[in-house]
From TrEMBL:
<keyword id="KW-0436">Ligase</keyword>
<feature type="binding site">
    <location>
        <position position="98"/>
    </location>
    <ligand>
        <name>substrate</name>
    </ligand>
</feature>
<dbReference type="GO" id="GO:0070062">
    <property type="term" value="C:extracellular exosome"/>
</dbReference>
<comment type="similarity">
    <text>Belongs to the class-II aminoacyl-tRNA synthetase family.</text>
</comment>
<dbReference type="GO" id="GO:0004820">
    <property type="term" value="F:glycine-tRNA ligase activity"/>
</dbReference>
<keyword id="KW-0963">Cytoplasm</keyword>
<protein>
    <recommendedName>
        <fullName>Glycine--tRNA ligase</fullName>
        <ecNumber>6.1.1.14</ecNumber>
    </recommendedName>
</protein>
<dbReference type="GO" id="GO:0005829">
    <property type="term" value="C:cytosol"/>
</dbReference>
<dbReference type="GO" id="GO:0005524">
    <property type="term" value="F:ATP binding"/>
</dbReference>
<dbReference type="Pfam" id="PF00587">
    <property type="entry name" value="tRNA-synt_2b"/>
</dbReference>
<feature type="binding site">
    <location>
        <begin position="200"/>
        <end position="202"/>
    </location>
    <ligand>
        <name>ATP</name>
    </ligand>
</feature>
<keyword id="KW-0547">Nucleotide-binding</keyword>
<feature type="binding site">
    <location>
        <begin position="329"/>
        <end position="332"/>
    </location>
    <ligand>
        <name>ATP</name>
    </ligand>
</feature>
<dbReference type="InterPro" id="IPR045864">
    <property type="entry name" value="aa-tRNA-synth_II/BPL/LPL"/>
</dbReference>
<feature type="binding site">
    <location>
        <begin position="215"/>
        <end position="219"/>
    </location>
    <ligand>
        <name>substrate</name>
    </ligand>
</feature>
<dbReference type="InterPro" id="IPR027031">
    <property type="entry name" value="Gly-tRNA_synthase/POLG2"/>
</dbReference>
<dbReference type="Pfam" id="PF03129">
    <property type="entry name" value="HGTP_anticodon"/>
</dbReference>
Length: 455
């Protein structure tokens, strides 16, 4: 069953996962902050991605490049020329819309990706697509609006000091491709992964953390020889599916794969596949896998005048590497995981809200609790011991049932209770979040027990 987005937002706020940005000042449109528990989940998600796509892949290495790059990077990449959205204004109520979305929202199976502005304007007129706000059919012509966030570097605000916040982390990788390859003596094929903030002045941000103007991306640029007969696109598509299913534990019935039509491809792409997730507000892009060919390296070689070719040690040939790019937004993946994890369950003695987060993403792996005040000291001792190996928390307020519910609500996989008998039998009760089953475990075997369960 799909979770209601308003319920999810309210839960995430009350439990300290996600807060409205700048809330005490009335907020800032579509900006969100990650609270103490949200920051934990986000960091864990990034670490899982980094481990899988960078550390534990035989081909790949990592990078951390700047957000502000030389503006020539964005000329070369095509972002200053092509990274625009078609905007249209309602003359009557002055509301502004993305013209392509107006069509696609009215005709769900239409894709106007490759259409000219004139074609979209004509279609809107002929098909009586009215203003969603005031229902008038009186629009301006379409104008292109750049998504690049502009600012100035240094004290003088003029053309020469104009810089941009990066709209994707990928270009930072392309401009450091040669340095990275040389320094690490990498041979093709190899990939460079990066995690970092990106900024887009989105026209229609919204749907909670799905589309925001400031977000984080986890991108891999995988470089290979144009003569390589391996199907690297399928290789990376399989890796992405593996990560989604086996690590983020996304249910296969909640996502689907969509191949881009030729006229829908981004200016740099030869082939693109989107992994789309069934969000509560509809299906939306979660992860894109693109074949960027040698577009970016060609552009940067031409604009910088630097030789970015690779000298193949086996064939002695010089060529520009081709690139496959799996790219995902941290917050979008987080939202998919939150949507899938939020569960309301009817129990014999009431109901519970439980965040069935993958164990590796739960803010805490284990909560230690004394049954009553008398066991506080012993429980505290055990808590400190567990902290050496686990993300543990200590919970002593309210009755034990309330504490279990509280830990369910934030997704803690195991609760360990120290009770009256612990002193004599040297055992504790371990409760499982999902099954709610309880087991009596010897304290001396607790570490081993948890390590095995939390794998
Ligand atoms: N380097 C390729 C690239 O940036 P993209 O499809 O524009 O491609 C990749 O973005 C991923 O980044 C998307 O699949 C999505 O997960 C995330 N993303 C893009 N724009 C976003 C936004 N405004 N807010 C949150 N996530 C976004």
């Amino acid at each position: 069953m799909k979770v209601e987005i308003e319920k999810l937002i309210s839960h995430l706020k009350s439990q300290g996962f996600v807060f409205q940005g700048s809330e005490i000042y009335g907020g800032l449109a579509n900006s969100w902050d990650y609270g103490p528990l949200g920051a934990e989940v986000k960091n864990k998600l990034k670490k899982l991605w980094w481990d899988f796509f960078v550390r534990r892949n035989e081909y790949n290495i990592g990078l951390d490049s700047s957000i502000i790059l030389n503006p020539k990077v964005w000329q070369a990449s095509g972002h200053l020329g092509n990274f625009n959205d078609p905007l249209i204004d309602c003359k009557k109520c002055k509301s502004r819309f993305r013209a392509d979305k107006l069509v696609e929202e009215k005709f769900a199976d239409m894709n106007v990706g490759g259409w000219s502005n004139e074609e979209i304007e004509k279609f809107i007129k002929e098909n009586a697509i009215n203003c969603p706000k005031c229902d008038a059919n009186d629009f301006t012509n379409i104008r292109q609006f750049t998504l690049m966030f502009k600012t100035n570097q240094g004290v003088v605000e003029d053309e020469a000091s104009t810089v941009y916040l990066r709209p994707e982390t990928a270009q930072g990788i392309f401009v450091q491709y040669k340095n990275s390859q040389r320094a690490l003596r990498k041979k093709l094929p190899f990939g460079i992964g990066q995690i970092g903030k990106s900024f887009r002045n989105e026209i229609t941000p919204g749907n909670f953390i799905f589309r925001t103007r400031e977000f984080e991306q986890m991108e891999l640029e995988f470089f290979f020889s144009p003569n390589d007969s391996n199907d690297w696109f399928e290789y990376w598509l399989d890796k992405v599916k593996f990560f989604l299913e086996k690590i983020a534990l996304i249910d296969t019935k909640n996502y689907s794969i969509r191949e881009h039509e030729a006229d829908e491809l981004a200016h740099y792409a030869k082939r693109t596949v989107d992994i789309e997730f069934e969000f509560p507000f509809g299906r939306g892009e979660l992860w894109g896998i693109a074949h960027r060919s040698d577009f970016d390296l060609t552009q940067h070689q031409n604009h910088s005048g630097q030789d970015l070719t690779y000298l193949d040690p086996e064939t002695n040939e010089k060529y520009l590497a081709h690139v496959i790019e799996p790219s995902v937004g941290v917050e979008r993946l987080l939202l998919a995981i939150f949507c899938q994890s939020y569960v309301e369950e009817q129990l014999d003695n009431g109901e519970r809200v439980v965040m069935k987060l993958p164990y590796k993403l739960a803010p805490y792996s284990v909560a230690v609790m004394p049954l009553q005040k008398q066991q506080k000291e012993k429980a505290n001792e055990l808590y400190k011991e567990l902290l050496l190996d686990f993300d543990a928390t200590f919970d002593e307020t309210g009755n034990i049932g309330k504490r279990y519910r509280r830990q369910d609500a934030i997704g803690t996989p195991f609760c360990v209770t120290v009770d009256f008998d612990t002193e004599s039998d040297r055992c504790v009760t371990v409760r499982n979040r999902d099954t709610m089953d309880q087991e009596r475990i010897e304290i001396s075997k607790l570490r081993e027990y948890l390590l095995t369960k939390l794998i």
